[in-house]
Design brief:
CATH architecture of the largest domain: Sandwich
Helix content: 10-25%
CATH superfamily of the largest domain: Jelly Rolls
Strand order of the largest sheet: 14-13-20-17-22-16-15-25
Radius of gyration: 26 Å
Strand content: 25-35%
Number of domains: 2
CATH class of the largest domain: Mainly Beta
Organism: Patiria miniata
Protein name: Cysteine dioxygenase
Distance between the termini: 75 Å
CATH topology of the largest domain: Jelly Rolls
Structural class: alpha+beta
Length: about 450
């Protein structure tokens, strides 16, 4: 049983109506409301996993409010609903036999900007956590930073007996013994108004994640061979064996990659030094100067893509790319076409800004930022860390090996990266190649060797 630090509150006693014994303080937040669901539902399916998960509704609502419900087969029975309205969102609970549902929690855009329904295609998600008795709502990727509202049924309860009573009272809502249904409803009060305008809501593309959002997965990877009791307890990294399957394959392929290979016969200089020289005086300098304007007018919004191998048809572009980031250079905010990726820093360091899903109206402020140094690895998939901006604020260049693939079950292979342009529009670029690796390596090694040993013309 969880034993978190919570202030005690009276337990809920009656299984038929778990709100009946709320304390006065709690009852203030639990407000009776009208059930404004328009029956029948516009979308519904059996809950894929009994008792927990995240439902993601990708849809353009045209500002039309809606309910997303986890409920019994009979929609008039036990219901835990997310209600997303104009300028607000709330969690609503209805017990079998109750005349009216109760609003458990409400947030408004005065305190929580953009919590309500929006224009344009948005990913609205609803996390339903049986073990911790927690409901969460957010938009975009399922992360702590994109969470807009949380309701914890055990908030403030420290006594284990009281916790157990609450769990018993809420058993009809969080049971794993009976299959629940996920349904989406339009809001009754507004449906006629929107119908009169001729507004049509797009059919939601609904996704399901069997793991509720409890906390973020760490963005950095530690090789599982280095795991110890301290690292297991800290939880600062995701272990390589725990990566999603597609990322695990990528990590295994690049984990031992290094920039410098001193065992090459006849070579007298290091590739890391040769790259630095070429960025200042050679072919890499010429190439990066020629790229100004591809992504934006700022000459520092450029970097080099050195590809390794050939396209295998299961990634956006060639799957393995050595990226070279001169000091002060950066990428635009971009996603990766819902591909998986692993990035290992081979030389220097890179700063990574993580963003929520991007649209022309979404915030361009990062959710959080972290730095990856030589030897560090990070990862991303369709939900975690998919949209980012890489930048090198230092004076020394940075080199990273990036690798990409799609999930085995992904039926849409999107060949482009979407990025936020200088005009704040969402544009596309194809991840092409500035050099092949062997071509680039031989040329910069010759440039630098000739310079060091005085053989240049």
């Amino acid at each position: 049983m969880l034993n978190q630090s919570r202030a005690k509150r009276p337990a809920l006693r009656q299984a038929a109506s778990p709100r009946s014994e709320l304390s006065k303080a709690s009852a203030k937040a639990a407000t009776p409301v009208t059930d404004d669901r328009q029956l029948p539902c516009v979308w519904g399916q059996p809950f894929p996993v009994n008792g927990q998960g995240v439902m993601i509704f990708n849809t353009d609502r045209h500002m039309m409010p809606f309910y997303a419900c986890v409920e019994d087969e009979d929609p008039s029975s036990n219901v835990l609903a997310l209600h997303v309205g104009v300028g607000y969102a709330s969690f609503v609970m209805n017990s079998a036999g109750d005349a009216n549902p109760t609003e458990l929690r409400r947030v408004t855009e005065a305190d929580t900007p953009r919590c309500g329904v929006e224009e344009g295609k948005v990913s609205y998600w609803y996390s339903y956590d049986r073990d911790n008795l927690v409901l969460k709502y957010g938009k975009g990727y399922r992360m702590e930073e994109s969470t807009l509202m949380t309701h914890d049924f055990l908030e403030g309860v420290t006594d284990e007996e009281d916790q157990m009573k609450i769990r018993e009272d809420l058993q009809p809502f969080f049971t794993a013994e009976v299959q629940k249904f996920v349904r989406q409803y339009d809001e009754k009060a507004s449906i006629q108004m929107y119908a009169a305008r001729g507004t049509e809501v797009t059919e939601p593309m609904v996704e399901f994640d069997k793991q509720p959002l409890i906390c973020n997965l760490p963005p950095t990877v530690m090789d599982s061979s280095k795991a110890n009791l301290f690292e297991l307890d800290r939880g600062d990294h995701i272990f390589s064996a725990s990566l999603p399957a597609a990322c695990k394959e990528l990590y295994s392929n690049v984990a031992n990659c290094e920039l410098n290979y001193t065992e090459v016969e006849g070579e007298k200089v290091l590739l890391s030094d040769a790259i630095r020289y070429s960025l200042a005086y050679g072919i890499l300098k010429d190439k990066i100067e020629s790229k100004v304007g591809e992504l934006g007018d700022n000459p520092n919004e450029t970097y080099l893509r050195v590809t390794l191998g050939s396209s295998l048809g299961k990634s956006p572009g060639i799957p393995y790319v050595l990226e070279i980031w001169p000091g002060g250079h950066y990428s635009p905010i971009h996603n990766h076409g819902n591909a998986n990726a692993v990035i290992k820093v081979l030389f220097g360091s890179i700063t990574i800004d993580i963003y929520n899903k991007q649209s022309e109206t979404s915030s361009h402020d990062p959710l959080f930022t972290f730095e990856a140094c030589a030897g560090d690895a990070t990862w991303l998939n369709r939900n975690w860390y998919q949209t980012h901006k890489l930048r090198n604020p230092g004076k020394e260049y940075c080199a990273t090996i990036q690798c990409y693939n799609y999930d085995a079950g992904d039926t849409t292979y999107w060949p482009y990266f979407d990025y936020v342009s200088e005009n704040q529009t969402i544009d596309e670029f194809y991840p092409g190649s500035d050099f092949g690796f062997l071509e680039m390596r031989s040329q910069v090694m010759k440039e630098y060797t000739d310079f060091v040993y005085g053989t240049s013309s």
